[in-house]
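Progress report, Aim 2. The chain analyzed during this reporting quarter is listed below.
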Amino acid sequence: AFIVAGVFLLSVSAAYAQFCNDGGGSNSARGGGWIAGGQAGYNWQQGPWVYGLETDLSGTGLKSSMSGGLVNPCTGDFATTTSKIDWYGTFRGRAGWSTGNFLIYGTGGLAYGHVDLSSTFSTAGNTLNADTSSVRAGWVAGGGIEYLVRPDLTLNFGYQYVDLGTVSLADPIPTLSQNASAHAAFSVITVGFNWRFSPSGVTRIPWQ
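Predicted structure tokens for the chain:
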């Protein structure tokens, strides 16, 4: 499966004890990027109803960054914050209803992924650099439509909303401090092909 769109939110709030009394500031940004990966799963069918388990793993180029956001900054003040998601995966249940060559389904379960967050602030010859990186666990929900191209091949259009929680950092020194956070929640739209296998000797029914 290939994921062709994604967006997630980055925010920063700063409590700056500055030399020029600019009073600190805050900012936020949204970002997007490419995602590509693959999935595997197993389906059961009872009449028109289809049930299954799926897992997927994807590398991503999801990134959000921003600069500025200071209130009345002094000459030479500089602030920038960047967050990115390197990869993510899910383990989901799936349930759907089939009609003809189409399957309409909903899905949800566990999500996990790697989130990076970094922030820099400089003023009056002082610089703060802070970064954090961790594997986060959260949840995923979505749905989609799958079309039976031929008995062993389907074309899948899907949507997922993934929430890996919030990653935060704080970096104080006696004269200034900064706080940044990234809510690693993002939406993805997927399109891809699934190859279907069946046990040897078992007659395939439409969505099994």
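The CA atoms of residues 80 and 137 lie 26 Å apart. The two ends are 19 Å apart (CA to CA). These observations will guide the mutagenesis work planned for the next reporting period.
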